[in-house]
Model the fold of this input.
Amino acid sequence: MYALPLQTGELVAIKKIRVGEKGEGVNVTALREVKLLRELHHPNIVRLLDVWPSRRGIALVFEYMETDLERVIRDRAVLLTGADVKAYLRMVLAGLAHCHARWVVHRDVKPDNFLLASSGALKLADFGLARPYGSPDRPFTHQVFARWYRAPELLYGSTCYGPGVDVWAAGCIFAELLLRRPWFSAESDVGVLNKIFTALGTPRDANWGGLRAMPAFVEFQPTPPAPLRSLFPNVAVAPDDALDLLSRMVCLAPAQRISAADALRHRYFRVDPAPTPQERLPKPGRAGVRVAAAAASAKRPGGEREATPAAEAGGPAPAGMDSGDVRFLKKRRLQMDAALDDAADA
Amino acid sequence: MSVNRKHGVSPALENRMKRSAIDLIAHAGKALNMDHVAMGTAVVIFHRYYATHSFLLNDKFLIAMACLYLGGKLEDTPKSARDVITACCMRRYGPEVAGLSLRNHDFLTAARERLFLAERAVLYALRFDVAIEHPFGTMLAALRRPALTRVWQEWGQAHPGSVSFQQMCINLLNDSYKLPLCLMFPACHVALACIWTVMKVLRIPTRLSDDGVTPWWQEHGMQHEDLKEISCMLLERLYHADDGAGGTVGPVSAACPTPTPPKQLRAVGVKRKAGETGGAEEYNDLFDELLA
Ligand SMILES: Nc1ncnc2c1ncn2[C@@H]1O[C@H](COP(=O)(O)OP(=O)(O)O)[C@@H](O)[C@H]1O
Ligand SMILES: [Mg+2]
Done:
C-alpha cells in the first residue's frame, strides 16, 4: 500500500507531465524518471513519493525541497567556508556514487539539479535524462548535460561514454563552489572546449587513446595546463588536497578520471576541516530565493511543477489535483509553485 | 476470490487467454526487433495487470499491445505506436486483413487512441511501479559457478548432440514467463529454481556446492521450500497439459536422452531440436544470445 504523505502534513512537490504532446502516449522521459527513482533510494537522491494519474497526464510527487545548489552558489550573502564546500561536494558525490553503483548515469548534473532540503541535505533530482549503462551495444546521444558541464568526450561527440561524464560535471560544480561562478561558461561547444583547455591544457594523444578518432574532434593550439593554484588562489577554501581531487575529477581523458566512489575516499575528505554538519550549512536567504525565482523565467516544455502543503491537497484522489484544490501561489522557474512562499504571501 | 473467478473465467480459460496474449507479445516484439528485456517486461506487466483485472472486461489483445508498447519505452527501446499496432495486427489478423485495415487512416487513428488509453490503464493498475526485475542475469551468473559449470560440462560430454544443459535451463526460464511467477517470487529465485528443476528432471544430484558447505542455490535469500514450490509450479502448470495450461509437450524426438525420460524432460529438452511447438519455441529463441 502507498503511504500517502497527505495525512502527515508533509510538504510535497508535484511535477505534472502532460500526456500525448508528441502523439506517443505517456512521456518516455517521465517514465524513465519514475522507473529509475523507484530503484534509487539514497539520502542524497530526491525521493519520489508517489505518482498520481491526473486528467491530462501524470503527476510525479516528490518530497519538497526548499531550494537548490545553484541558488546557494549565486547568493552573495551566503559565505561558503572550506568545510561547507567539502560538505556539499561530499553529498554531490555520494548521490552520484549511488547511481553509478546501480549502473545509472544521470547525464544532467548541474547545480540546479541538486536540490537542498530544509534539513540541509543535498539531493540529486531530475532523472529525465538518466539512463542505465553497461550495455555497450546501445549507443548514447552526446546531446546531454547543460553545455558548461559537458565532459570533453561529449563535446568531442562520443556516443559510448560512462559514469565519468557525471564525475566531470561534479568537478565543474566543485570548482563553481570555490569560484562562486561557473568555471567553463561559454556560448558554444568550441568555446567551452577552449576554456577547458586554457585551464587544463590540451589533451595529448599519449594520455587519451583514440582522441583523434572522436566524431567531433577539433585540434586546438597545444597549451600546457595552468597550475590550478593560480586559478583557485584561496588556500582557505581550496587547500592542496581539494585541488588534487579537483584535478582528478576533471581529468581530460575519461579512462583516467576518478570514479565518484574513489573520490569519496580521497584524502580531502579525511583531513581537517571536517565537512560542516548538514543542519549547519548556510542557506540562501528567502530574499535570495525570490530574486532567483523572479529572474529565471525560462520555461521548458514537458515539466510543470507545483508544490503544495500535502494537507491541503484535498486527499489522494487524483481528481483533487485537477479540480483546483491545489493552490497556486507564485510562478517559479519552470512553473514551480512554492507553497511556502504562498503561505508567506497570503 | 479473484476477479476472473468472479466473472466465471475458469483457471484453464484464464491460462489459455494468457498464453495467446503472451504469444502475441513475443511474436510482435520479435517482429519489432525488441530485445528480451523489453519483451520480458511487457509480459511481466501483462501478468500484473490481469492479477487484478478481468479478462472479460479488458480486451487481452489491446492490453497485450499496450504492455508491449510500454515494455519498449521502459527498457529504452521505444517503438512508435504505429509500429506496435502494425506488428500486433499483422500477428493477429494476418498480413492481408491487417494490411487493409492499416491503410485505413481512421482505423489507425482509433487504434492509437485506444492504445494510449490502455497504456495509461496499465500504468495506473501498476501504480507506476515499473522497475521490473528479470532473472536472466542471475541464471547466467549461477551457471558460471564452479559447481554448476561441472554439471553442464559433464552433461554435455555424456550426451553429445543433445540439447545442452544450459539451453534447457534457459528454455525453462523462458517458459516460466508464461506463468505469473513474477507476482509471487523474486526474479532471481525463479532463475535458480529453473536450474534446480532441470537438474531434478535430469536426475542430476542437486546437493552441490562451490565451497563444500553452502548449497549452490543458497543465494539471494533463497529457501529450500521456495525452490520446491517454484519447481512444482513450473512442472505442473507448464507441462501437464490437463488444465489447459500446458501445450508444449510435443512428440519425443531423438534429442531425448535414454532411458525413458520423464515426461517433463521431453518438455524441457525437446523443443529446439524438434521444433514442433511453434510459438513457444520462437519465444525461446529470443534468449539464445544469452548463451553465446
Ligand atoms: N522536489 C522538489 N521540491 C522543490 N522544487 C523542486 C523539486 N523538484 C524540482 N524542483 C524545482 O523545479 C525545477 C525543475 O525540476 P526538474 O526535475 O529539474 O525538471 P526539468 O526536467 O524540467 O529540469 C528545479 O530546478 C527546481 O527548482
Ligand atoms: Mg532540471
About this structure: The CA atoms of residues 100 and 107 of chain B lie 10 Å apart. Chain B touches chain A through 20 residues (CB under 8 Å). Chain B has two domains: 3-125, 136-281.
